[in-house]
């Protein structure tokens, strides 16, 4: 914990510096989150310019997701061991340089390779941010407010990406969805070097578990690949899906066994003893899987059924961003302090479930203001309440030396949930659409029927998340519900 300044003016200056530093961290996070969706709108132009095949085009997205999802946990832990500030700046440099190569790409393989490196840089940058925030803001009220700001950026950046991607692609060219990262990355890095305090990790000797790092990185990368490639294309029961899935699970099981016996594990398994940490991450997987379905399939419904252009689709999702931002930034801290993290989370999840339930009834000839807008408002309100509370709970009670690990973990479960939700819901929607087409329905009616089924399953996933919250999370008095970074416990002295 930082020393308390005795000079009042110094205290004011330090407080202002912390909040400006938060803006810098969130700018870095926004750049990473935007890149996850900004590319989707530009894919047709990229395919036409670089000659991608239909199957090859998916790798513009998949290469990024595999590197990003596979490296988050290791990157977060490296921040604890070496320096969170150092990992953040290194990741920012890798991401920015890879963005330059992406924008300059003239061949399909060059873009895919650069996207993989970009995903690695994004993982390094984003994995340590939440850990830095909880150590920068030790006071519960300030901490809850800061996490609310971060949660808004992390959650709403995807919908902003649809708008930015459509505007840049139509106004200039697809190359600029990558080039725009260059000035943002440079300015963010310059400000970060000035505003973020130098920190020293606990040392590589406290967790430089190379075999564990290789096992978890390989397992997570293969798991993400299995979800977004063979499972999405061949089905969950296909031989290739089962083979890769089994290998991924075996690698993760070997990693758990390694961490249980390693003298200095990369991921101390004691972090999962907390019901709030374990429960919050499981809830994250389920709720993000459900919400991601609405963002992805909702955008397809607007474009393929209602005939929206990419830029119109981005504008259609703006109410989610506006409502989410208002709640996350201005009111999430008050809600958590007043009602507690668990109650605030459950209330937000209920609103998300209601929003998804409404979207299960979307008609073929839907009207935006009556059939779509109410869902967008409810979704924004639910996410604005739920996700800041969820991140508070996911970071609650962790040791200062493990804040980066907890931060990387909460980012990892979000990525796994998003990839899982996309694969399952897209497969269900596609299968249902094909069945309806064979039955003789029109294309619009068949697509709408497929989306409706996916929204039913997405709603069920969020309901399951509510059940986990009720059963697993510990009820807490409101004043105890904000993140509290636990004081370090003395390590037991090992014999020998």
UniProtKB/TrEMBL annotation:
Keywords attached to this entry: Cell membrane, Membrane, Transmembrane, Transmembrane helix, Transport
Principal cellular location given in the protein's record: membrane
Residue intervals passing through the bilayer: 20-43, 55-75, 87-106, 112-134, 146-168, 174-196, 208-228, 240-258, 279-302, 314-331, 343-360, 372-393, 405-429, 449-473
CDD domains reported for this sequence: MFS_MMR_MDR_like (cd17321)
Residue ranges annotated for the Major facilitator superfamily (MFS) profile domain, each copy included: 21-477
Cellular component, GO annotation: plasma membrane
Cellular localization per UniProt: Cell membrane
MF annotations from Gene Ontology: transmembrane transporter activity
Domain of life: Bacteria
Bilayer disposition of the protein: Multi-pass membrane protein
NCBIfam families per UniProt: efflux_EmrB
Protein name: MFS-type transporter EfpA
Phylogenetic lineage: Bacteria, Bacillati, Actinomycetota, Thermoleophilia, Solirubrobacterales
